[in-house]
UniProtKB/TrEMBL annotation:
Keywords: Amino-acid biosynthesis, Aromatic amino acid biosynthesis, Oxidoreductase. One of its GO terms (molecular function) is NADP binding. Pathway: Metabolic intermediate biosynthesis; chorismate biosynthesis; chorismate from D-erythrose 4-phosphate and phosphoenolpyruvate: step 4/7. CDD domains: NAD_bind_Shikimate_DH. Residues 6-88 form the Shikimate dehydrogenase substrate binding N-terminal domain. Gene3D superfamilies: Leucine Dehydrogenase, chain A, domain 1 (3.40.50.10860), NAD(P)-binding Rossmann-like Domain (3.40.50.720). Coiled coil: none annotated. InterPro entries: Aminoacid_DH-like_N_sf, NAD(P)-bd_dom_sf, Shikimate_DH-bd_N, Shikimate_DH_fam. It comes from Filimonas zeae. Pfam families: Shikimate_dh_N. It comes from the Bacteria. This is Shikimate 5-dehydrogenase.
Amino acid sequence: MRTFGILGYPLTHSFSQGYFQEKFRKEGITDAGFKLFSVPDIADFAEVLRTETTLEGFCITIPHKKTILSFLQDSSEGVQAMGACNCVRVKDGKLTGYNTDVIGFEESFAPILQPHHTKALILGTGGAAAAVEYILGKRGIDYRFVSRTAGEGRFTYEQLTPEVMAAHPVIINCTPLGTYPKVEEYPPIPYELVTSAHYLYDLVYNPPLTQFLERGQAQGATIKNGHDMLLIQAEENWKIWNR
């Protein structure tokens, strides 16, 4: 039996497990299984690798997209550039890291871009934000991070003035705020300053309409959630695991 899985914490509701179990069923794949590796401390993942002797690949979610790097023997140029990994191929005991978030994000994000979408705010600074930063840089879209804490080259939420909001018509939520079951949460941006010129993209996919997106939609903004991104990167993961 070939084993695949997802590494993260917590993993109470996993899109990936349901997706791959259904994929195996539909495609008649009977020699593969998908497991949840709910690991609070990345150091404990060593035990998973020791015991899961048939593991051929796994994806990574919050909070281990950066901490997994210490386990890799090799990685793609993208992973090296971003310092974040969401897909690992295991072959002959060697762990090779990839980042398929970049493909999923770009292919789902880019079709809705308009000519005036030249500047963006990235909410959050974790592993997912690294993939978003990579794609914005690739497409020549100027960006600034937004965080609860001050830092060089980034805004705090309190610094999102009318001028800042008007100058950055693209806003991308890379935080877990609003994810089920805490659906009442949302990033504390000044939604009253969002307009029909804005494009709000949420990497959260459950629920489909987060408070972040709903509040933006109420202001006339274009909105999109992270569901398509997940579908695209999941298929890319499968291609990598079967090379």
